[in-house]
Amino acid sequence: MESLNNQNRTMNTQAGSRLEKRIGSIFIHVSDMKSAVEWYSRVFDLPYNDDYMNGRLSTVYTLHFEGTEILLDSNHGAAPAPQPMMFFKTDDIRHTLQFLKDTGIVIHNEVLENNIVIFEDPDGNRLMAIQM
């Protein structure tokens, strides 16, 4: 065990890559930036930059969440992942599920006994809501 602790200490102090133990941003690949900005802004009650609604779109759009950012990226035609790559916390999964249904969002799985709902954005990217 002592050897392992010494090895970990050595790895942490070597020169070179100093990756931080936090996520900077998460990319979500989208095919229609305007539609994606509108959808994410509506679902997460986020303000959006009017330039995006007036046709002056970039290929990357930043959504500001607490603790990290999500970057909508229309540069690459990546296929949606079959499983969620992240989850969003909610304090009331049933209310969240009803909101998603009322908004017409595609629901893939409701596991209410485990406080989980899997849903998708307009590009088929699967997202998850969890009550913690």
Helix content: 25-40%
Order of helices and strands: HEHHEEEHEEE
Strand order of the largest sheet: 4-7-6-5
Low-confidence stretches: none
Structural class: alpha/beta
Characterize the overall form: globular
The value of Rg in angstroms is 19 Å
- N- to C-terminal separation? 35 Å
Largest sheet: 4 strands, mixed
The number of distinct helices, counting runs of at least 4 residues, comes to: 4
User: What is the arithmetic mean of pLDDT?
Assistant: 84
Strand content: 25-35%
Number of strands: 7
Architecture overview:
With about 130 residues, the protein is α/β, with parallel strands linked by helices. Helix content is about 30%, strand content about 30%. The strands form two sheets. Strands 4-7-6-5 form a four-stranded mixed beta sheet, with helices on one face. The longest helix is centred in the N-terminal third of the chain and has 12 residues, at about 1-15. The radius of gyration is 19 Å and the shape is globular. The chain starts with a helix and ends with a strand. The model has no long low-confidence stretch (mean pLDDT about 85).
